[in-house]
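Notes from hallway chat w/ T.B., transcribed later so I don't forget. T.B. wanted the structure written out for a chain they're using in a teaching module, and asked if we could keep both sequence and structure tokens in one place. Agreed to drop them here.
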Amino acid sequence: MPFLGELSALLTAVCWSGSSLSFAEAAKRIGSVQLNISRLMLATIFLLVTIGVGRISTSLSASQVLFLVISGMIGFVFGDTFLFKAYEEIGPRLTMLMMSGAPAVSAVLAFFFLGEVLPVWGVAGIGVTIAGIALVVLERPEAPTSSYIISKPGLVYGALAALGQGVGLIFAKLAFDEGTINGFVATFVRVASATIVYVPLGFLTRRYKNPVEIFSRQRKAFGFTLLGAILGPYLGVTFSLIAVANTKVGIAAALMATVPILMLPLVRYIYKESFSWKAIAGAFVAVAGVAILFLR
């Protein structure tokens, strides 16, 4: 199918735009840990059913499984825990704008751990991306209409989330470099491994409570969690892996980084949040930086 990778990357951005808003609403109601584990469990079920019904081949080498497991641990357990904390602190728009810097993080890590040398345009792309993020993060509107505020903990959470996604992408790429992998199968290994670790850990630390009891009291939270699980770890992550497998990583990353731009009208319509032209310009500059970095 022509442009399968490019179309998958755009679908990823659309899915992640919707999932970020859904998860932000759920996190406010049930907390980040409860949300993270619940959506992983739901996504695991969806993926398992999809693989079974579609009779998709699950043939993977031991090293591919290992790389995908590590990718899932870093991306879902580490990265997404801080992602949801950032949702609670600074809201979906600023969080996803910071996440647009994850491809730049991947490029830097690839230089140190995979020996990929960044040319001048690569360094320029990182600089432009950081500048775009700074335009929005440092914005101080006189009369904010959003219920979220910019806080140092929120910015730290967002940065750690971007780091987790960037490192997770490195290990996922290692798995795909070894041979062809179905997107749903790769996502299942990543999600299931994170779930296996995260569920008992959540119960042991008493930060994860009986989901039936929680969601029976918070039905809206369940609806947002369910929608986010479908758009995020089930469809969004799968589309992102299909994109990486069927087009150049740079093109896929640049298209997936359009999430902040897609979110601006959504946040304006749903939350009635007003933002200056500075914020809009910052979003476009950040995505332009990612494009320079990967389309060099």
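Follow-up for T.B.: The radius of gyration is 18 Å. Might be a good example for the class.
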